[in-house]
Amino acid sequence: MSRPLLFSIVESPSHPDFSPLYRKLGIEEVRLASQRKAISELRRRPPDLVVAEFFYGYGNNYAGVNISNLDVFLASLQKYAPAARVIVLVAKTERAHVDKLAALFPLHGVLQLPVRPQQLEALLT
Q1: CA distance 97 to 71
Q2: Residue-wise DSSP of 50-115
Q3: pLDDT beyond 80 at 60
Q4: What CATH code is carried by the domain that includes residue 60?
Q5: Could you give the 3-state DSSP secondary structure of residue 14?
Q6: Fewer CB within 10 A of the end CB, N or C, for the chain?
Q7: What is the pLDDT of residues 17-56, one digit of tens each?
Q8: Contact (CB, 8 A) for 28 and 3
Q9: CB 28 within 8 A of CB 4
Q10: Number of folded domains that form the chain
C-alpha cells in the first residue's frame, strides 16, 4: 500500500514546518513554493491531502474575480483530485474571509495560526 501524498504549499515564512509530523504519520510530503508549482505538480501526481495558507484578495492581487490565493488551485484540484482533503491555515485577521472560500470549495479543516502539531494531526488522522 502506498503512503498518502500531501502537498504542503508554503508561500510565506509564517507557514509552520510540519515535516516531522508528516513523517511520523507515514505521509509523503511534497513541498511547493507557489500555487503555480502546486498546479503543475497536481497534474503529474494528484494528492490525497493539501495543507496551504489562505491569503484574502483584498482589492486586487487576484484580479477581482477570486477570493484568495487558493481559488485557482482549488478549482484545479476538483478536476484532478476531487477526493483530496484540504486543510487551510489562516491568520486571525483573515479568518472571517475563509467562509467565502468554503462556500465555493470543500475544505476538510481550517486552522488559525499559530497551529500546534496536535491540531493538524487530528485532521490528518
Answers
A1: 13
A2: EEEE--B--SSTTTTT-SBTTHHHHHHHHHH-TT-EEEEEE-GGGGGGHHHHHTTS--SEEEESS-
A3: no
A4: 3.40.50.2300
A5: coil
A6: N
A7: 999 999 999 999 999 999 999 999 999 999 999 999 999 9
A8: yes
A9: yes
A10: 1
